[in-house]
Amino acid sequence: MAVSTKIRIDDVGEKKSVLEKIVEVGKRNRQLGLYLYILHWYTQRGEGVDLSKLHRFYNAIAGRAVTESTVSRQLDVLKSKGLVEVRDSKAIPKVFDLDAVKDLFDVKRSRAGRLGAVAKLTRELRLKVNPRLEDLEIPKSLKYYVHRVVEKSLELVREGRRLEALDLIVHTLLPIRETGVLWVWWRDQFIYYDPKCKPSLHSVRAPLVSELLKKLGFEEGIMAHHMLGHEEASKIIHRLFGKGHLSWPWSRSIFYGLKKLGLAGEGEQYIIELFYEDGWLKVILKDLYGSTIKVFEREWGGELPPPLDSSRNYKSVCIGKQHVYESNEEGYFSRW
User: Fold this and answer.
1) In this predicted structure, what is the pLDDT of residue 203?
2) Do the strands 270-277 and 201-205 form a parallel or antiparallel pair, or are they unpaired?
3) 117 occurs within a structural domain
4) The CA-based dihedral angle spanning residues 172, 175, 179, 181, taken in that order and rounded to the nearest 10 degrees
5) Residue 223 near residue 166 (C-beta atoms within 8 A)
6) Does 264 reside within a domain?
7) Does residue 101 lie within any of the structural domains?
8) Residue 148 · residue 125 · CB < 8 Å
9) C-alpha span between 93 and 37 (Å, rounded)
10) 3-state secondary structure 156-197
């Protein structure tokens, strides 16, 4: 049974068949071509495409015979991005809205494969949000930095400097870079934008950070206003860590320490739409079939938070992990 979708690849020619257009796209970006071929096969036949057929298709777009392991590696990256899954030796798409996946591929490069706490919230800490954590063996260095971050956040909130406290937490207890933006806090999920990664939208699960924010009086929803406290929070991070230009990698490495202890982890995968209109930010959270799960709104004035720009809208897939290539996390884990 055919499945309806929103495939549009008209930029490569109007009179050619969809498959011919996919081949042309694939010659420019093999990973994208592979995904489109899987999506097209499924929408036409209602079933996954056999891996042997994928191998033949890949040979066609590569213009030469490649090994099966080459195709497998590309499939692994697509799986890491949450775009496909493999069942019974057949590749099946998981995301059906092509507009939402454009940001997940670097179309400027010729080969898609080159894509570019709260440990201290134990009985030791007066917040005591989860007493069950007291039996964990927490590295002393990690405990020390989490203690400093939480105590400083409490101090800032007491002084009425709530945005500085929020930005400090965003860039330490969550894995968000100096240039990143926390867009949404919902339940124990945190959805953020990372300008240095492809894909650029990510989600993580951090129940204890959620508890901390509630204790400090913050409410769930759009959180991009933390940027307004960033100038002062940046100075605080440099003082807390005292490692010069390495202070920022050290700050977000706290999250990876929590993750290693099982206190934080991977998030869920969504389609995200970001809007700005008439003085309001709007975030629409959808499942991978395009059905709306939740809508968030927040009044906003001044400069738009990235990735919004003059177009005032952005749509992409949010993946439930920090890095497509997990080896990129090793340096953060090793600090603890």
Assistant:
1) 96
2) unpaired
3) no
4) -100
5) yes
6) yes
7) no
8) no
9) 10
10) HHHCCCHHHHHHHHHCCCCCCCCCCEEEEEECCEEEEECCCC
Name the residue range of residue 74's domain: 10-94
Residue 109 CA to residue 29 CA, distance in Å, equals 7
What domain count does the chain have? 2
Supply 37's token pair. Answer: 């071929």
Instruction: Give the whole-angstrom CA distance, residue 248 versus residue 267.
Output: 22
Q: What residues have CB less than 8 Å from 85, skipping those under 6 apart?
A: 79, 91, 92, 94
50 within a domain of the structure (yes/no) = yes
Looking at the fold, whether 240 and 308 belong to one and the same domain comes out as yes
User: Could you state, in chain order, the average pLDDT of each consecutive group of 10 residues for the chain (336 residues)?
Assistant: 38 58 86 90 88 93 91 91 91 83 64 30 31 58 90 94 97 95 97 90 94 93 97 96 86 88 90 95 95 96 92 92 64 58
CATH code for the domain in which residue 19 is found: 1.10.10.10
List the beta bridge partners of residue 185: 190, 221
User: Are 78 and 137 in a shared domain?
Assistant: no
pLDDT of the residue at 291: 93
Phi, psi of 119 (to 5 degrees): -55, -30
- Tell which residue, 103, 270, 101, 259, has the closest CA to residue 195: 103
The residue among 94, 109, 141 that closes a domain is 94
287 and 181 share a domain? yes
Whether 181 and 72 share a structural domain: no
Question: Cis omega (within 30 of 0) on the bond before 305?
Answer: no
Q: Are residues 76 and 175 in the same domain?
A: no
Find out whether 71 and 59 touch, Cβ atoms under 8 Å.
Answer: no
The reported pLDDT for the residue numbered 294 is 96
- Report the distance separating Cα 152 and Cα 144, nearest Å: 12
pTM, two decimals, is 0.71
Q: What is the DSSP letter of 304?
A: P
- How open is the CA angle 98-102-108, to the nearest 5 degrees? 140
Q: In the numeric block, which tokens belong to residue 123? A: 């009985």
CA separation for the pair 267, 88 (Å, rounded): 26
Q: What's the pLDDT at 40?
A: 86
